[in-house]
Amino acid sequence: MVTLTEVARRARVTAATVSNVLRNREKVRPETAERVLSAIRELGYRPNLNARALAEGRSSTLAMMLGNIANPFYPEFVLAAERAARRAGYFLMVCNTDDDAETGRAYLTQVAGTLAEGVIVLNTDIAINELCASAAIGAPIVLSLWEHPESPPGLPCVAVDFARAGALAATHLLELGHREIGMLVGDGCGGLQDARANGFREVMRASGIEPDAAAVLQIRDSIDAGYEACIQLMSNTPDLTAIFATNDLLAIGAMQALAALGRQVPEDVSVIGITDIQLAHQVRPALTTVAINTSEIAALSIDLLIQLMQKERVDVSPPMLQGPPPKLVVRQSTCAPKRPG
Amino acid sequence: MVTLTEVARRARVTAATVSNVLRNREKVRPETAERVLSAIRELGYRPNLNARALAEGRSSTLAMMLGNIANPFYPEFVLAAERAARRAGYFLMVCNTDDDAETGRAYLTQVAGTLAEGVIVLNTDIAINELCASAAIGAPIVLSLWEHPESPPGLPCVAVDFARAGALAATHLLELGHREIGMLVGDGCGGLQDARANGFREVMRASGIEPDAAAVLQIRDSIDAGYEACIQLMSNTPDLTAIFATNDLLAIGAMQALAALGRQVPEDVSVIGITDIQLAHQVRPALTTVAINTSEIAALSIDLLIQLMQKERVDVSPPMLQGPPPKLVVRQSTCAPKRPG
């Protein structure tokens, strides 16, 4: 078994430097790091991270708990988070709760404080007070994509101003001249996306528009659900000239439903979503949406978690960072209505 | 700090039973498991998996190395693999190499044998001989989605008969009456998808059809690349009545390009892919494709890995399991050509 000391000797550095290269390459000069990596390769050295974790009281691994990795939003978030974690010298373990609170709890019990040194929780069905209880005795937890910046959750979090995202969507549709607007409100594993819906409604009301109750549907957060709901929406209220969906999956499903109904997007009906997942620019017509900058939020969440793990923060109350402000991205799925309302 | 013994006492079972519940719930009677889980919850017991891993020489974690989690194929694979791992009492750590061989090697060095007890490698740019070298000194490695069942890689693997998938696509298009067929061949992080293309070509040739060189394009494995390539394909060879893509992302991009060109799918041009990712049934028209049963392949891979880890196999040479046979799934993107060739 090759030891760290042998690697250090061959690379003509101290053992501490080898450890730094393994843990946080940025702290070491590139030429030195290259020499250490060569020595590691030549000797076939394999750091025993579990042993080191125990010895140092840390395990080099972060965990990310999320509802369902097959929802196209999450892989993009995971990708960005993993890049941020890797830059800081950590592995990222993805724990998929399958939208099941019991599974989430089982993961939390085993992961927090033992297998992982810190945990990012995305939308799951685990209650906030359970997360707080876990964080109190185990590894730090950061709640990411918190939808209610006006009321901090009592846990460190990264909040996103989703109400503002909804407001931006409303303003865009109003400025184009839309007055008959339907809403698809997602009800995913993170709960009802009501901050987005309320932000949208507020702007509408300020313009004297109260959405027709028949033109608002609450549905699961998926393309298939968006498709079905849009068919129903257009049958309830056929005069709609625009549809606002609280996320891109619903919006994409709605666009497909409109195509199936023989309604042109955007000429007959405009569609706008929220998030800007990859698919948003890949579908045709490309989706107008309000981008929330997933990558930056993921990186912020990882950074906050690592600060908490390393006790670099001395906050009086749990910190709440604000994600970057949502931004309107106008593509091809919205235009002025044929007959302005 | 609550101990395992206290949990055992409260649940009126032996410590070994508690350990079994934590590790492999299926070995324990449901009522007993429920009692143990209640005791764990009530006492706030938190198993120290790192300590246990060291004590037992195992770490309860499997790693999955893949090129890019944001390719929509992988999340579905990860979801299925994680479910299979969880059923067997393991966590699944997802290591994303970002399609970079150097990053892949760094992960492999640290993960195999220390942080994870076994590794599943999906398409990455790491050479087979490097994987073999790693497996010889560290944790077992299973190569999943091996595309060449006719030549085993020298590592335990789960192979998929992708040539057969290509052949099924060819037979479908031929039976519909297509003769002028374009090909989009993916060149992803797992290398050129030539087994699929060759399987397709063989069936074509058996019918006396040699694809026009101008009607075959090799491209990166993404919706955007499929879109661009299809525009070029239709400009090279405008008389095509069908397009075969070696994966669904390319096929979906091609369908969007055809729509942008004003060509109806399937009336003007039929499109068929391979894989059957979620999006295949979610796009409109829904994509005809050859399904490779991702979930079953993922589960097979996890099962094989665990057998190797537990030394339950005494194979003379590295085992190669066959994934389930590919299956044609006819949806709305293919039909007979207007003017049969």
From TrEMBL, chains A, B:
Top-level division of the source organism's lineage: Bacteria
Transcription regulation in keyword set: yes
Pfam family, one: Peripla_BP_3
CDD domains per record: HTH_LacI, PBP1_LacI_sugar_binding-like
Residues covered by region (Disordered): 320-341
SUPFAM superfamilies reported in the protein's UniProt record: lambda repressor-like DNA-binding domains (SSF47413), Periplasmic binding protein-like I (SSF53822)
Annotated keywords: DNA-binding, Transcription, Transcription regulation
GO molecular function terms noted in the UniProt entry: DNA-binding transcription factor activity; transcription cis-regulatory region binding
Leader peptide range in chain numbering: none
Record-annotated HTH lacI-type domain positions: 2-56
Protein name listed in UniProt: HTH-type transcriptional regulator DegA
UniProt organism field: Paraburkholderia saeva
Gene: degA_1
